[in-house]
Fold this sequence. Notes:
The chain is of the alpha/beta class. The protein has helices at residues 51-58, 64-75, 79-90, 107-124, and strands at 5-10, 21-24, 42-43, 93-97, 135-137. Strands 3-2-4-1-5 form a five-stranded parallel beta sheet, covered by helices on one side. The radius of gyration is 15 Å and the shape is globular.
Amino acid sequence: MVVNRIQVKRVYDPAEPTDGYRMLVDRLWPRGMRKDALPLDEWAKDLAPSSDLRRAWHDGDIPTDEFQRAYAGELDGSDALIRLYGHILEGPVTLLVATRSPEVSHAHVIVDALERLFRQRAMRHQGGPPGERVRLVGRIE
Length: 141
């Protein structure tokens, strides 16, 4: 059985062989980054928070906990999250964000949503070992 993992990195950090599938999860392209200069497998704009939610959070109109709840609601059952789940089953995945502090970015909400999805799928599994767990790398609580 393959041990899967997911990590969060800044787009400005160098790519590493252990990154696996590299997915940009920001709605906007990173400032100062040429599109041909970013080693990336997918730009998943549909995994990013909606524009209105992102603006409200960045402008300080909503507190972080409210943002997290609203964004988790956007992700719940989304095709984009299911697609990401499929990539994780195939091997390591690195979520890329342009923020200065990935530990306080929206990416950790994606990771939490994936953990819930893995638990839900494991609970549905009948007659064998539970589904694989996601091993998080570089996550700051």
